[in-house]
Amino acid sequence: MDKVLKINESVEKSIINLLKFLLESKKINGVFTLRKLYDNDSVGYSLITDVSELDNAVPFYPLMTANAGKILSHFTQKKPIKKPIAAVLRPCELRAFVELVKREQGSLENFLFISSSCGGVFPIKTVEPDKYISNYWDTVKNADISADIRPTCKACEYFTPYNADITVSLIGEKKLDKECRIFLNTDKANKIVKGFTGEMLEEKLESSEISSLLDKRKTEKKKLFDEIHIEDLGLEGMVEVFGKCIGCHVCSRVCPICYCILCDFESATYDYSQYDYEKELHKKGGLRLPPDTIFFQIGRLTHMSFSCVGCGMCTDVCPVDIPVAAIFQKTGEETRQLFDYLPGKDVEEKIPVMIFKEEEFTELGE
Question: Do the beta carbons of residue 294 and residue 239 sit within 8 Å?
Fold first, then answer.
């Protein structure tokens, strides 16, 4: 059984009050969370140190304007600090940050991680998302899948977090507007909430509602994979799918795992000179412009097969609607089965491409 802090207020109010308590009592240095930016539907991640600014916080608003794991890696201090920053992340964002930590792009030490059982997020292109909020929370309460969320969210099986200090129970909670259950997963969490009003209980996060949603998500995943039928594509099919790519590289810029300051595909290595164009034209008689877009996508695919956390940012921003995330998700599933490796699950687990195990290659012969 897990330690649970039960609060008799709505989830949003409870979490904001907890964050205010932590900031006012100087137990944390700041809060990283989603915040309303203007009087319209605009939200964005913010680092907050002024308690009054938390009145605009919307920690579990179903919109991912950027993958928070990528943002956290930009300002992570490698030197330990006395008081952590409370960071509210979705499960896939937390897994992304853990993957970046493995690549020495961040540190877990300076954060208090708050996550939740996740109902998914709306696509960025959603117009006036507030119109869909009521229905969204109804589906969360009923452990169902909102028709308005990202396709990859509908197919995500990892909607309960790993490595969170605090997990807020959302899925299947019928009284979200009246009651909040906060699971304290670490000693850090137990110590830091001392003094905050609530009833301490012992319960389990796993429930029949979570199991039910998992089954529904698996069904949606099969539908998603059937639509792209990647296993039947072959080289010609991949060329057809990725042939729409216009070379904007936005998918790599929003990806939390693509952290290189200069992507190799954007370096001089792949720049075409006039001589290169002339040589290709002489050989082929015609040259697609911009060149090498398919090579770029297949190159990213080899990287993402063991690192993709399924956040869906890439598909969300693709201007030509290539189902990049679904393809990476399917490829990643094959890699997971081969290496028994889930990206971001365990910070101590080595990335498959970085280790060598003799038993993995017994099929090649002695």
Answer: yes
Residues 116 and 168 sit within 8 Å (Cβ to Cβ): yes
Q: Indicate the residue type of 48.
A: I
Place of tokens 């409370």: 86
**The token pair that represents 292 in the structure block:** 């090498």
Cα 46 versus chain centre, distance: 17
Q: What is the tally of helices (H) and strands (E) in the chain?
A: 13, 8
| Whole-angstrom distance, CA of residue 93 vs CA of residue 103 | 15
pLDDT (tens digit per residue) in 71-103: 998 877 667 778 999 999 999 999 999 999 998
Tokens 């201090």 found at: 77
Backbone angles phi, psi at 34, to 5 degrees: -70, 145
The amino acid at residue 192 is I
Per-residue three-class SS string for 208-259: HHHHHHHHHHHHHHHHHHHHHCHHHCHHHHHHHHHCCCCCCCHHHHHCCCCC
Region at 234 (left for phi over 0; alpha for psi -120 to 50; beta for the rest)? left
* DSSP 8-state symbol, 23: H
Residue 91 region, left (φ>0) first, then alpha (ψ -120 to 50), else beta?
A: alpha
CA-wise closest residue to 176 among 140, 136, 223: 140
Q: Which residue type does 239 have?
A: V
Question: Rounded CA gap, 11 and 119, in Å?
Answer: 14
Distance CA 331, CA 314 (A): 15
**Residue pLDDT, tens place only, 166-194:** 999 999 999 999 999 999 999 999 999 99
The pLDDT, as a whole number, for residue 273 is 67
pLDDT tens digits along 99-132: 999 988 988 989 999 999 999 999 998 888 888 9
Hey, where are the domains in the chain? 2-222, 227-364
Residue with tokens 């830091």: 192
Given strand 43-48, what is the order of strands in its sheet?
43-48, 30-36, 85-88, 111-116, 166-168, 180-184, 2-7, 199-203
Token readout for 236 is 């010609």
